[in-house]
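ok so dumb question maybe but i'm new to this and my supervisor (M.) told me to 'just get the structure for Spindle pole body component' and walked off. so i did the thing. is this what she meant?? sequence i used:
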Amino acid sequence: MQPSHSRPSSSASTRPSSPASIRPISSASAHRPFSSRPPTSASSRRPLSSLSTRPHSRYGQRAKQSKLMPSCHALVAQLTGITDEDTLKAKVDYVVKHVDPSSATTRAGPSLNLQAVERHVRGHIQRAKINVRDEWAEALEHSYNSLKHRVEKNVDLDDTMRVDRLPDHLQLLLLLANPPAPSTLAYASALLDRLRNPAAQAQGLTWAQILAEEPFEGEHWKGAYGLPAHAVVGGSDEDERADSDSSAAWSESSEEDERGEGDESEEEQRGGEGVGVNLDGEVEVEVAIPLRYDHRDRIEELKARQYWRPEWRPDLDLSRGFDIGDASTLGATAVRSASTRSFLSSSALIPTSQRYIYEHDAVREILMALQGRQNLLLVWTHQGFTPAPDAPRLAHLSLTAQRSLLASFARTASTLARLRTFAAPRHPALRTLEAFGAALAREVRVCDAWCAAREGAGGAASLLGLEKRLRDAFGGVYGVLLGVASRYASDGSEGEGGVGVPAVVAASLLDALLDAAGRYGAMGDVRVPRALLRVLARTAEPLWGMVGRWVRGGPGGLEEEFFVEDNEVGLGDAGFWEGGYTVRGRGRGVPVFLERVRDVVVSAGKSVGLLRAMGLDVEGDGGGRWRRFEELVGVEGEQGEGEGAAMSAEVLSQAVYDELLAPCRRAQTSLTRVLFGECELMRHLSAVENLYLMMQGDDMAHFSSALFGKASRGQPWTDFHFLNTSFSDVVDARAGKARWIDSTLVRLAYRGARATSRTVRVLDGLQVEYAVPFPLTYVFGPGALRSYNALFVFLLQLRRAKSVLDSILVRGAGAADELKVFYAIRSKLSWFVNTLLNFVATYVLHTQVLQLHGLVQKAESLDEIIHLHEDHLEKICSRCLLRENTAALHRAVLSVLDMSLYFSDCFVAFAGDNTHDISRASLIMTRRHRSRQQRRLRRNVIGFSQSLLPVDDDSDSDSDGEGETAPEPSFSVAASVSLAEEGFFERLDKMSSDLDGLVRFIRRGIESLAAGAGDSGQVFGVLAFSLEDWDR
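this is what came out, is it supposed to look like this??
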């Protein structure tokens, strides 16, 4: 745009326009420069034609608007990007029609004055302040004041914008304005910064700088500016002497000048520049620095905004009456109304303070209170935050409404303050409680950061809006956290339920957090479960670290908060594995999410400790990084919006189980390999079974025959030396790999009463011990060996009765009629004993041993091996009637076995020594001195034996019999057989009836056990089926 000149208009400029003046401009004239020659007189005096009075055509109107055409064309092209010529032309015509001031469309619109525009601008400034955008409001106000200042001086803004058209320009800008963007706020901040810290202007070269450059070199400086000759370097000696003569005069004149200048004002002396010469003859230049007081104005401006000062007053007219269009008149009107009524003059509706502040300032005070800082609206008492009695008023709220809002914020601020108190470091304290306090502190810092962000955020600054945003952001998170923390406010000494065990306190705290998260999650809440899971993850971090050290490093330095307790049991003790390390508090010290993996964790730590004691390490333990519990749960960071936000107790337990299973199994498998390899678990297991369960039939039969031979001859058999020597002789007879057990590891002893009675119960005092090497003592502990010994004695009792019955011989044909009764009773006794022995050996021992071997070889941990072994022994003992629930049946079986010994004594008393010794020594002697008569007698020996068939079985049962009492026999096994009182046949009849009663009692008990649930019922069903043949 070409600059315009302000020359006065000529007379030619006032003439009416001719038709030629409105013709279209040709292309040649459009590019031809304007002519500057003055108009001719002929043209000025030419009469008007009739065309000059015609109305302007539409074509002429567009030609008149051609001045705005280029600008409108460029504007439309840039905003729309239209390339089609016809469409672009139509758009340009539309814009020109509505923009041109002379058009009918524009003139029809209302024109604003400067006062109306100022109200609009002030409204934008007030809105910016309400939205807590102070910098934007201040920059907008400063810009408008600067523009207004120029308008007041009646200075045109530029060559094309006149002052009288300024309201229209501002109206256009206001209509085109968009809401402030981040770039707008950034520009406003930069503008204020430039205004407050103006950049120093670059100064050009001044005479003071030139004169300050000493010394003055060159002859051209001589005499210049009144400089003395001695101040110039490089002159001749004559000139210097001549100049030295005049130096005194020059100094005198300078003194007079200085005295003359003494009358000048102080401001002129400060603002001027002077050049002087000191005593040494050097030139001194003084530059005065003007004094500025802009900082004082800035200080006063800041003081005017300090609403907390007692003398500060808002820019409000509190004396106005109530105006429904102005909310600021509500509060003062309500106070005046309450004070004028006598019945309300002493009520709480009359405020104690007449101070008023803006609502955005009240919002800032509430934000400060939420952060625990001193403020004007809320004060701290022993009950928490309460509204301050002299709190400033809000002009647009009644006293009741203001107190209600402040009470709501006071509750939230009190909750946050109490959480800060709990989160403060305390000593001493449990590590879990310290972590809980740190987690609470982080959650409180989230609220503090939110409050700090709200001070600089946009949006309307109102107390109701702040309360809604606070509720939407946090909900009831802090109230729930305070409820959990209030139960552990005394360093956990009480804890939940008054339990003072640190592990129980830590577990109950974690369970309370997890339970609260589950309850609020079930109600559809999202914020509370997220916050509780964040706190839970950070609170459980110390316990999680203890679990990691236990699983990867084994026992050592266990803390009281850890759920594993050291019972001070030595590693070499047989009860170490079971009782050395146990769970504290009878299981209450384990959090819910660790319940599923508790036993695995305890076993893994003991396995690592045992391997370290044996000088071994865990196989495949690469020492990788132990994941933090926050990473596992997925709630890292301040907000923790990860996957753990919706994690339930079941999901968390599964995640913990999956995380711990791999390292625990690695430790357990490493120990299992050592047990099967270096410790030879299977070899020792076979040795124990061959010894106690008499699976090695030949050797154990020879040993029992030697034992029974001494007992039958009435010789002492309980001697320690005899028992161990007899067993060693039998075992050592095998050489090399055929030797199934190391006899040095076996020790037999008799710890019962004197074995003088003719009963199988005397064998109860026989004790067999097997020295199991370490660490297999954990598998074959004292309890297991006691069960094995009970089985050994029971099997020995069955063999004793069988050997006695098998040794009875029937000699001669003459006594056949008398011996029929003996033969019948002997057959019954032998049938029962052999049936029971066959059941125990085949369906109990053989089946369970095969099943145990298969399961043990698949076991992955020592705990699993111990559990399988104990379950194996429990099944065998229960099916051999050696448990308390089958004690009556066991006594009945022993009575039948004792009856076998008594029957043998009766037979010997009746027929003489007509028995046959089937011991190993007797067989050897018979084989050496066998005669024809002995071979004939051998044919008359009646024995009962049956083949053992393997039958599968894998279960147990605890079902009892019918509760009957075992019938007692009518004879005494301790008394000697005598015929004085009654004869043999009477005694045999009683013995037969007693035997029938005992067997029937045993059969009923076995049938009741067979009717029980489980696999043991099937096993006892086999014995019950066999006993049904008794009545046939």
